[in-house]
Amino acid sequence: MIRTEALSKEFRSRGARRVQAVDRLDLTCDPGEIYALLGPNGAGKTTVLRILSTLMDPTSGEAWVRGHSVRTEKAAIRALIGFVSYETRVYERLTPREIGHFFGRLNDMARAAIEDNLAYIFDLLDMTEFADERTDTFSTGMKQKTVLMRALVTNPLILIWDEPTSGLDVLTAKRVIDYIRLLKGEGKTVLFSTHILWEAEKLADRIGIIHRGRLRSEGTLESLRARTGLGDLEDIFFSLVGADGEAGGR
Ligand SMILES: Nc1ncnc2c1ncn2[C@@H]1O[C@H](COP(=O)(O)OP(=O)(O)O)[C@@H](O)[C@H]1O
Ligand SMILES: [Mg+2]
Fold this sequence. Notes:
This protein has 250 residues and is α/β, with parallel strands linked by helices. It has one domain (2-247): P-loop containing nucleotide triphosphate hydrolases (Rossmann fold). Helices cover 37% and strands 26% of the residues. The longest helix is centred in the C-terminal third of the chain and has 16 residues, at 170-185. The structure holds adenosine-5'-diphosphate and magnesium ion.
């Protein structure tokens, strides 16, 4: 469903400092799978997900979403995916319902279909109460839900989700986690990034451990255990990224 081949991204800041954010990364995410890209801050997770969402071009290498190239078939990919990021801003002058209609129409959806989807999503995410309020007064959690709603209104087959629970209170985070499970039940493919080990452990069919732009290991929790001879995901994680992992060390 999603595949990257020697995917690389180098950033060059004006001070000529180069950062190899993604370094010859090969990963595959199968249809209907929940895949967790797990790594410390600065590992390159957001950059990978932005490339896969066609928001940014790789420096070298390739990636495909359902066979479409992220370099040359951006429109086809955008029609298939929903990209959710805690960094996404919401239009402050609009209400969630207006934002939903705007994005639905951008994707050529009929008004009635947008309304049906919105009713379902508002109910599911407990948004009905504020669906017709302008987002400028929203809490972080309400804004996050609005960003999620925006990605879901088009009923995407694939969800690419950067740090799903970042900035959320525990209750909302739990709803989001439950929701990811529900999406899997609906046959969707979910690729998400996280630096929280238990999130990957709880949700993912397969885990890709990324550090300094490189994939250190990939597989089910069982296969990661077997490969490293360690039982606990935390131990596996530190054996692969080293003790500097949390610091992001770059
Ligand atoms: N737009 C950018 N310009 C320069 N460097 C960047 C940019 N975006 C990310 N980086 C750098 O690339 C590396 C990977 O960042 P990122 O993909 O955001 O990691 P993560 O999401 O895993 O925390 C970091 O060293 C970060 O500072
Ligand atoms: Mg990030």
